Amino acid sequence: MEARYEMIIYWSDEDEAFVVEVPELPGCMADGSTYRDAVANAEVAIREWIDTAQEMGRPIPEPKGKLAYA
Fold first, then answer.
1. Is the pLDDT of residue 3 over 80?
2. Which letter, b or e, does each residue of 10-41 get, where b requires 16 or more Cβ atoms within 10 Å of its Cβ?
3. Can you give the pTM of this predicted structure?
């Protein structure tokens, strides 16, 4: 399954790393010392989140694409 979930990426001074949040998958986050590392780690985290949800019989949200924020 190709991940097409929105990722929010930002620099964290506290962690001294790029942090990636995946809002459509509750609790799905990753980080990395570079932007690319953070995105690659997030792709792994997404796959693992989905695999775990499947194993537990939980629903997996469909990617919605760009989310709108008010």
1. no
2. eeeeeeebbbbbbebbeebbbbbeeeeebeeb
3. 0.86
Domain boundaries, the chain: 31-56
Positive/negative CA dihedral, 39, 45, 49, 51: positive
* Interval 7-37: pLDDT, tens: 999 999 999 999 999 999 999 999 999 999 9
- Contacts of 9-15 spanning 24+ positions with Cβ under 8 A: 9/35, 9/38, 9/39
CA atoms 25, 62, 47, 66: torsion sign: negative
Whether 37 and 18 have beta carbons less than 8 Å apart is answered as yes
Residue 32 CA to residue 59 CA, distance in Å, equals 28
